[in-house]
Each structure stands twice: as C-alpha cells, then as structure tokens.
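for the recovery benchmark. tokens below, seq after
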C-alpha cells in the first residue's frame, strides 16, 4: 500500500519514515489535553479515548497491545528522523514525532509507541500538553491575571458608585436651589398657578436631549449610548399603553397629594422640609414600592404584555430620520417653551422671600434661590456621566425597590416576592441607592449653606404618607417616575414615556383642582398657598 503524507510526499511500500504502525481506523477530531494529570476527566468530557489507545501514568496517550488493539502490529521502535518543521502529520493518522526542529529525537516507551516531548501527536490527532514546567508557569500567569482583573473590577465598581454619589449631590443641590422641591411648587404646578416645576422639568429635558444626541453620534460614546437606551427599553418592555396610563395617573395624583415626587422627596428629606413631612412621604413611598411588588403578579397577568411592542422608540417609526436629529428638534421646542414661560412669568415673581433671618449671602452657593432653568440644565447634564459609566439613564424610583427589598432576609421571602427580590443585588440596582443618597446629602448641604434647613413648609403627615404610597405605587406601575419617564424616557424618545408623562400631568391636575376647590370652600386648609 502507499501512504501519503500531508505535505504531499508519497511513501513507497517498505518505507516507514517514522511510522511505527498502520491504523486503518478513520481519523477523529483533535482532542486538546490541557492538564495531563487529569487526562481521563478531560477525555470523558470530550467524548472518550479513541479506539486502541490508553493513557500512561504520566498522562501520555499511546496504543495498547494485544486484544485491546487488534490493528496494532509492532514493527520496532520508531526512529527519529530530522524534520524541517516541528511536526509532520500523515493522512492515515499514524503516530508522528513533534520535536524541536531538525535535531528532535524520540524516547521509546513500553506498551507500544509512546512518545514523550513537550507536545506530541498520536493516532486520531490526539494532542497532549505534557510540560509540567510550562503548565505551572501558565497557571501562575492565569492566577495573576485573575487577581488583576478582580482588582480592576473592584476599582471600577468603587469609581462608578462614587460618581453616582456625586451626581446625586449635584441633583440635590439643583433641586434645593431651584426651589422646585418645595411642596408649594409642586402642588401649585398642578393648579397652574406657579410654573417653577415646569421650567425646571423642561430645561432638564432639553439639556438631556442635547447631551444624548451628542453621545449618539460621537464614535467613542455611541456604543455607551446604545447600551443605555437598550437598558431603558428593557425596563418598560412588559408595560403597555394601559399600564403606562394608569401608572402615570397614580404617580401624578400622589405627587399632588404629597407635594413631592420620587426624586424631590429626597431633597425634602435632606432639607428637612415640613419638620419631617418629607421623611414621612419617603417612608410611604417605600411601603408603596413593597405594595406594588406584592400586587405585581396579578397586575402583570391582567394588564402586562406577554409580547413586547416591536417598536418602542420614535425613530423606529421614522427609520429614515436619525435619533440625533429628532432629539435636537424636540430639545429646541422644549427650550423655546421654557423661554416663553419665563418671559410670561419671571421666576423671581414666583418664589418666596428667604426664611433665613439676619443672613446675607456672600457667594452663589449661599444664595437662597437659583433660576429654575439653571437647576434644570445641571440635572440634564447628569445624563453624560451616567450613560458613560453606568450605561444607564437618570432615574430614581427603582432605588425604593432596592431599599425595601433588604427586608427579604431569607430565600423563602425572596421567592414569595420575586419582583422585589430582583432589585436586591447588583450594580444595576445599587447605583441608584448611591445616587439618591447623594440627592439627600446635596440638598442638606445646600440648605445649610443658605441657612434654610427645616424652614420650608410641608403638608400633613397623613397626607404625606398616603401621597408617597400612591406616588411610588404608580411609578412602579408605569415603569418610571418623573425623572425616569419624564427626563430619561422622553430623552431616549420612548413612546410609552410620552404617554406616562401626559397621564402624570392629567392625574396631578385632577387632584390639584379638586384640592384647590376644597381649599377655596374652606373644607380643607389651602391646597396651594401662594
């Protein structure tokens, strides 16, 4: 018979050329053995040892003799033949010596044609790595790489959480200085008597749209923007128009009752508004998040979508128009509305005089109030670090779920409330906790600098608690709050967010007008003290 090498050379009968035997079995796939000391285990995972092969004590693969390998015909030990390359393979799958260049040599072994070297190839293309020294070196390098990766991850995690804390402090400062956190500003917005909240909200939206449009076109930030956008859509993918509408109306109603929103209540806690009424609203919001988690299975089965919408985003419907262009157009429109409202109702005519007695501000950080559109610009710019570092957008209502989920101290409790349990761990949940903590600290610092700590009026504790409960229940129902849907959702052009924001203003307006009427009739205390 003739044997043909893979380099094309034909061997005549009688020529062995380092062939110790002829095996007529068809060649099999290559099996890579990384650790000879565990060769059996690795071969089991890879489908077992080819027919007629055994593993010696040192992990070398070779042929067995006798009945175990009927095709084996000993022809003496293989002799090393110099090669131009490190290996030569034959098409019949015979054993081939892999040496170290032309001076390679083989070492005879008992039990057939075992060949010991740094790398060797046997019948059926079985490859064994058998260098103990190189294996230990590889293990050391791998362990070092794992340690470096672990350290890098820890440093990265700490950096991200610190940035979230600082971003929260900026937002808390902006809310306090813009006076938008005051219950009076929020309640009177829903009766359309004071426009501070609207100016801040639209300014933050316009700035956020501009920032996101920029991130979407720059080559080195485009991927981060796309990931953040996908993350946002994934949070509302199970929501439908009905859930966004009902949840938005509940959110707005709770805001009008408590004179707060999930983000602004944090500033109320930091500035100790209403002698603690802000803290009562916060507790009510935590209870509301837990209440929604308990009701979520029923709500999701009744109103949730089993199949998400195929087109969640505005630019999905006008694919020939890029996101950046749509975002810039919407930013220009919202900025124009802010300018128009400011010309109609200047912000200085809508704020109260500073309650700080015998105190004169010496620099801008000690000022009692800033223009609400400046506060909005600062908040809108926070989209940049959050998108680039966290791959997420501005939001706060999920943090209430993370905080309330910490009472689930056993696995059985987590299984009983699975909606809440999913918020218990992970950077995707905890970054918002650091963010809202920063909001509290920022508002506290700002109020201390302006000497207005605990000097802002609030609402009654009973209304605060109930309003906080309804507010957060509605936010989780809709899948977002004023910052989540209003600034980020509209900012990424999510259509459900437009619906949720409209429903929020509708719900808040209904409660606001009812409260204003009852106050006028002296049934209750003035709902919106001017």
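predicted aa per position
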């Amino acid at each position: 018979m003739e044997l043909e090498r893979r380099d094309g050379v034909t061997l005549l009968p009688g020529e062995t050329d380092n062939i110790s035997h002829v095996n007529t079995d068809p060649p099999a796939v290559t099996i890579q053995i990384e650790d000879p000391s565990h060769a059996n285990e690795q071969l089991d995972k890879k489908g077992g040892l080819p027919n007629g092969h055994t593993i010696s004590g040192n992990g070398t693969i070779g042929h067995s003799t006798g009945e175990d390998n009927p095709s084996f015909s000993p022809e003496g030990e293989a002799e090393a033949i110099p090669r131009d390359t490190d290996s030569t393979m034959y098409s019949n799958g015979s054993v081939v010596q892999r040496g170290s260049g032309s001076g390679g040599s083989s070492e005879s072994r008992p039990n057939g044609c075992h060949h010991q070297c740094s790398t060797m190839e046997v019948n059926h293309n079985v490859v064994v790595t058998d260098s103990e020294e190189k294996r230990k070196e590889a293990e050391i390098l791998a362990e070092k790489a794992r340690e470096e990766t672990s350290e890098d991850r820890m440093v990265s995690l700490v950096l991200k959480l610190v940035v979230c804390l600082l971003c929260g402090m900026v937002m808390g400062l902006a809310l306090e200085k813009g006076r938008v956190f005051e219950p009076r500003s929020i309640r009177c917005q829903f009766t359309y008597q004071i426009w501070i909240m609207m100016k801040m909200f639209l300014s933050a939206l316009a700035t956020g749209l501009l920032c996101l449009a920029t991130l979407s076109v720059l080559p080195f930030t485009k991927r981060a923007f796309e990931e953040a956008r996908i993350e946002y859509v994934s949070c509302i993918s199970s929501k439908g128009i009905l859930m966004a509408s009902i949840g938005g109306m509940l959110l707005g109603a709770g805001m009008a009752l408590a004179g707060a929103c999930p983000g602004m209540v944090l500033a109320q806690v930091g500035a100790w508004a209403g002698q603690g009424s802000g803290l009562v609203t916060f507790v009510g919001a935590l209870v509301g998040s837990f209440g929604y988690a308990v009701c979520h299975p029923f709500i999701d089965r009744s109103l949730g979508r089993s199949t998400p919408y195929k087109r969640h985003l505005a630019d999905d419907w006008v694919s020939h128009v890029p996101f950046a262009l749509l975002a810039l157009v919407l930013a220009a429109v919202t900025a124009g509305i802010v300018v128009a409202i400011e010309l109609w109702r200047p912000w200085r005519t809508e704020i109260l005089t500073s309650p700080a007695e015998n105190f004169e501000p010496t620099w801008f950080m000690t000022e009692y109030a800033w223009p609400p559109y400046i506060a909005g610009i600062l908040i809108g710019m926070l989209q940049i670090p959050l998108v680039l570092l966290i791959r997420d957008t501005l939001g706060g209502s999920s943090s209430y779920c993370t905080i309330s989920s910490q009472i689930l101290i056993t696995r059985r409790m987590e299984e009983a409330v699975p909606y809440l349990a999913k918020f218990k761990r992970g950077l995707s949940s905890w970054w918002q906790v650091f963010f809202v903590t920063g909001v509290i600290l920022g508002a506290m610092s700002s109020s201390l600098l302006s000497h207005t700590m605990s000097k802002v009026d609030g609402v009654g504790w009973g209304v605060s608690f109930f309003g906080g409960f309804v507010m957060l229940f509605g936010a989780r129902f809709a899948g977002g709050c004023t910052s989540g849907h209003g600034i980020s959702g509209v900012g990424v052009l999510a259509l459900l967010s437009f619906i949720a924001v409209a429903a929020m203003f509708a719900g808040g307006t209904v409660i606001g007008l009812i409260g204003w009427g009852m106050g006028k009739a002296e049934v209750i205390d003035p709902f919106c003290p001017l």
